Amino acid sequence: MRVPVKGVFALRGHPLLKESDGPYQGWLVFENVIDSNRTVTEYIGESRATKNFKEPYDIKDGPFLPQATGSATAEFAFEGLQIEPRAWIDNWIVRAGSFELVIDSGEPVESFDLG
Fold first, then answer.
1. Record's superkingdom (predicted)?
2. How many CB atoms are located within 10 Å of the residue 101 CB?
C-alpha cells in the first residue's frame, strides 16, 4: 500500500534531521499489509481552522492479499490532515510486515522491516 504525503516534519532522532526538519513530501510505503483502519472527521467549510466538524466515521481499507501464516507484523500509527475531502485523520493503524517513508528523491529514509 502506497500513501502520498506532503508537509511531513521530522521529529527529534529521525535521520531526516541531518538535512532539515522539513517539510517533506513523498510516500508512506507498506508491504504485506494485514489491515488498515482510521477515523475520519471532515471539516465543515473551507478552513481547517474552523471548529465545525461532521460526525467522525471509520474507514477500513482493503481487501489486502492474504499473508503467509506466521508472518511477522507490526502496528504503525499515524494522524494528520487529509486534503480531499478536507478532514482530520485520527487513530490510523496499519498492521503490516514492513514500512518505509520514501521522500520525493526516491530514497527510503526510514524503514522498519520485520522479515
1. Bacteria
2. 21
Host domain of residue 46: 2-113
pLDDT tens digits, 29-59? 999 999 999 999 998 876 656 678 899 999 9
Question: Total structural domains in the chain?
Answer: 1
Q: In this structure, are residues 76 and 112 in contact, taking their beta carbons and an 8 Å threshold?
A: yes
DSSP string, the chain: -EEEEEEE-PPTT-GGGGT-S--EEEEEEEEEEEEEEEEEEEBSSS-TT-S-BPPPEEEE----PPPPTT---EEEEEEEEETTTTEEEEEEEEEEEEEEEEETTS-EEEEEE--
